Amino acid sequence: MATATTCRSLLLAVVVLISQLCGCTAYVGVDGFSVEFIHRDSVKSPYHDPALTAHDRVLAAVRRSTVRAAALARSNHGDGAVSEVVSRPFEYLMAVNVGTPPTRMLAIADTGSDLVWFECEPRAAAAGAARPSAIFNPSSSSTFGHVGCNSGACHALYGTSCDASSNCQYPPVIRRRLQDKRFGCSTSTNGTFVVDAMVGLGAGNSSLVGQLGAHTSLGRRFSYCLVPYTVKNASSALNFSDRAAVTEPGEATTALVRSEFEAYYTVELESVRIGNASFEHLSRVIVDSGTPLTFLDKALVDPMVQELTRRIGTGFPKVPSPQEPLQLCYDVGGPARRYSFSKSIPDVTLYLAVFGEAVTLKAENTFVEAQEGIMCLAVAPVTEKHPRSILGNLAQQNMHVGYNLDKGTVTFAPADCASSYNSLPVHG
User: Fold this and answer.
1) pTM of this prediction?
2) Helical residues (DSSP H) of 75-150, grouped into ranges
3) What integer is the mean pLDDT of 83-93?
4) Which of 69, 218, 297, 329 is the most buried (most CB within 10 A)?
5) Do strands 236-240 and 32-39 pair parallel, antiparallel, or not at all (unpaired)?
6) Residues whose CB is less than 8 angstroms from the CB of residue 379 and which lie 6 or more positions away in sequence, other chains included
7) What CA–CA distance (Å, rounded) separates 406 from 346?
8) Residue 190: other Cβ atoms inside 10 A
């Protein structure tokens, strides 16, 4: 897994021109803008490894799930919210243009973080550190400025200090949130981190979403539509402002509830239903695009496994799991039997509290092909190592998921995500 540590760096006030924000923008209009949401295994990603098979990538995603689930839980420990800059796995990337004139950079896009930072000059990489493809040069940007160490933005961060010029510096681990349209600028990293930036899409005020809402007329709204892992040569879409409205038939809206960490998008799950079987257990669930698997309380997962086992029946032999925490694995053989297996999987319906809405998970949301002909349940129980319930990105495939921080809601709707991106007009 790629890791990096961001050393003491200057806090910067960087004005990002919204009309130039995304280097891979598919559409810009009066109703907002849409950009390409690049999966880390895409051929467009620097993390793409052509030597891996599709099943290798699935098992790697499973391993990243457990690491990220543990990291999301760690972020809730201690006084205040702790955000480790790049020490946890991620799944999606986006391209951004920074400064004036713009520098195009490839950034991690993380719904579980409210940090926004870029690799900057002058840069002192540690031995063995990967060099990013682009580095922002503050001295070349007309919209750059330092944040003073006596400013409110600097004091809002735990562990900050002053440099010789009275500019604010932040430590490797940030314990509070950047404020007032400030972005971090990293001048030293180590490890194998090969992207140029991080764009937090979390619910905190300092995330990209929060800053767009505070300083533009776009509002604090965004959405994405995730293309299934099995669909090749198709891109997911990330939408902002009015383009983030979820209007597809069957949409389900629920309220976001208070989380221990402000950046997390958290909902209340009331029960799970499979056919006529209903399992009630009130729990708070983080909706996260950066965790592939879904993690739910054992009180829900155990009866789910029993009911799915009963409904799938004995037509497909059970096999051992190829990778923890995957469970309920079946040998489904070739394509024809794989189709029959998918048809045997019942819908899993999540009943959300507050507004009483329901989100239906199809076979592609609940099972994943972990090895050739081996299908496994993509839902794992919460454990001491992974103590947070998370609705992962496999469960969100082919769903238009819209976050509206102005209203405090999140909306889910079934969608054909491959066509939703490819049908966008290209912005010239």
Assistant:
1) 0.86
2) none
3) 68
4) 69
5) antiparallel
6) 293, 294, 295, 296, 301, 304, 366, 395
7) 35
8) 17
